[in-house]
Design a protein that fits this description.
GO cellular component, one term: periplasmic space
GO molecular function, one term: oxidoreductase activity
Order of helices and strands: HEEHEHHHHHEEHH
Distance between the termini: 42 Å
Structural class: alpha+beta
Organism: Halopseudomonas xinjiangensis
Strand content: 5-15%
InterPro entries: DSBA-like_thioredoxin_dom (IPR001853), DsbA/DsbL (IPR023205), Thiol_disulfide_DsbA (IPR050824), Thioredoxin-like_sf (IPR036249), Thioredoxin_CS (IPR017937)
Largest sheet: 5 strands, mixed
Main location: periplasm
Helix content: 55-70%
Strand order of the largest sheet: 1-5-4-2-3
Length: 212
């Protein structure tokens, strides 16, 4: 009986030690380096692990983050889907979010995304109205008629409504913010910078991959 008790105690202590070691080995922890959302937000491609970036064209931090995350996106494996989501917190945020989805609907987002950032932050063009946007986009082959049609389309309005719901589901209060698979929110202030945000995202992607 004593031998059985001893074996059981050794097994229990060994299990506890393994659990402690696993916790110590984890480089990032919920509540410290990221936030686990109470309810998962919907993702765009359910068969892949999603990394969403909540951003605003008018945000200086987002502008600084853009070249970093652009290079990082190129390294993502096939099972990871990157999804930019404009933050719609009212006023200019919504105007620029509508611009984002207008460009996306026209199939021009890839070639104009950086130009919008540059116009706002380097050229001091706030892109506060449709006229300013049309002037900026004319060199990219977007006519005023095409822009106006997409700008007021049902598809763009629907995307705006989806983005609004996503921001609430993410429970985000600032940008840039990363959301991994609709479950985890990563903020720069929690981890100390852009590069660390991406490291936490990679860690969480791997955690999600192991669950598949």
């Amino acid at each position: 009986m004593r031998a059985m008790f001893t074996v059981g105690l050794i097994w229990l202590l060994g299990g506890l030690a393994a659990g402690v070691n696993a916790q110590e080995a984890a480089p990032y922890r919920a509540g410290t380096h990221y936030v686990e959302l109470p309810s998962p937000a919907p993702t765009e491609e359910p068969d892949k692990i999603e990394v969403a970036e909540l951003f605003w064209y008018g945000c200086g931090h987002c502008f600084s983050f853009e070249p970093i995350i652009t290079e990082w996106k190129k390294t993502l494996p096939e099972d990871v889907h990157f999804r930019p989501v404009p933050a719609l917190f009212g006023g200019a945020w919504n105007t620029h979010g509508q611009l984002f989805y207008t460009l996306q609907s026209l199939g021009k987002l890839d070639e104009t995304h950086e130009a919008v950032f540059q116009a706002i932050h380097n050229q001091k063009n706030r892109l506060a109205d449709e006229e300013a946007m049309i002037d900026l986009l004319e060199p990219y082959g977007i006519t005023e008629e095409e822009f106006q049609s997409a700008w007021s389309s049902f598809g763009v309005r629907n995307k705006m409504e989806q983005a609004n719901r996503l921001a609430r589901a993410y429970r985000a209060t600032g940008v840039p913010t990363l959301i991994v698979n609709g479950k985890y929110r990563i903020e720069g202030g929690m981890v100390g910078g852009f590069e660390e945000m991406l490291k936490v995202a990679e860690y969480l992607v791997e955690q999600e991959r192991q669950k598949l």
